[in-house]
Each structure stands twice: as C-alpha cells, then as structure tokens.
Recover the amino acids of this structure.
C-alpha cells in the first residue's frame, strides 16, 4: 500500500510547510501549502526559492487544486508539487496531467491500482503540463 507516491527522480522535499498567508512574511520559507480558495498566483514572485508546494484536497469533490497546479507549472515552477488530502486513485492520473508529481493521500492506495491508473491512457487528447503529446499532434506528425 502506498501512503506516499513520487514521480520525481530527486528526494522528496522535507522542509516544514507554512501557510500561504504566512509565506510572504517568512523570507526563509521554502515550502508552502495552498488551501482551496487561495490564489496560487500569489506565489509567482517567489517560484525560484520554493522547493515544495502542497495543494490540499479536503474532499475529492473539490477540484480547485487542479487549477493551482496548472497555474504554477505554466508559470515555470519546477519544484515538487504535492497533492495532499482526499486524493483518490481515480484522480492521480488527471492530477499528473495538471502538474502534480507527488501525492500524499489521507488513506493508502493499492500499489497495483496506482500503477494501473498511470498506465490507463497511453494517448491523451488535451495539451497539458506533463509533456505528453496530445494525439491530435501525433496525427499531424504522421501525415
């Protein structure tokens, strides 16, 4: 059973995580947690010093964290982006597409289910931040 999943080749960040509200006042903070309803764009001026951004999913039905991930990745954030909270195995492949590269679910996930979730759709239709080429772009290459 997996209680932490990482898709990164480096070591997971271990820095103490601070709230978004307190992050701006702490010049030495390198890890921050975003709660639903908070604006990830507040972190854009600080991307160079952030090693970890945790995005909280208090309920699997709350999808605002997907937008936070996209905002950060599209702005050039390359550090660890961790989904925490009510993270379900059905969601992790979609979270990956939005830029999450580590996951800390409230409840452990079955290893085989996790592997199957990441392998389920080898081809994708939408352009996103995970560097997989959409199928429509592949079609144009083959023509």
């Amino acid at each position: 059973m997996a209680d932490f999943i990482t898709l990164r080749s480096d070591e997971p960040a271990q820095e103490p995580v601070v709230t978004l509200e307190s992050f701006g006042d702490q010049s030495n903070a390198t890890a921050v947690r975003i709660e639903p309803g908070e604006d990830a764009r507040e972190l854009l001026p600080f991307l160079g010093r952030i090693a970890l951004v945790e995005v909280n999913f208090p309920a699997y039905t709350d999808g605002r964290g997907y937008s936070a991930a996209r905002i950060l990745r599209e702005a050039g954030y390359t550090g660890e982006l961790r989904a925490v909270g009510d993270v379900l195995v059905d969601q992790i492949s979609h979270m990956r597409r939005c830029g999450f590269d580590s996951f800390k679910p409230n409840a452990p996930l079955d290893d085989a289910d996790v592997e199957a979730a990441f392998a389920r759709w080898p081809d994708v239709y939408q352009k996103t931040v995970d560097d997989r080429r959409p199928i429509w772009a592949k079609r144009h290459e083959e023509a």
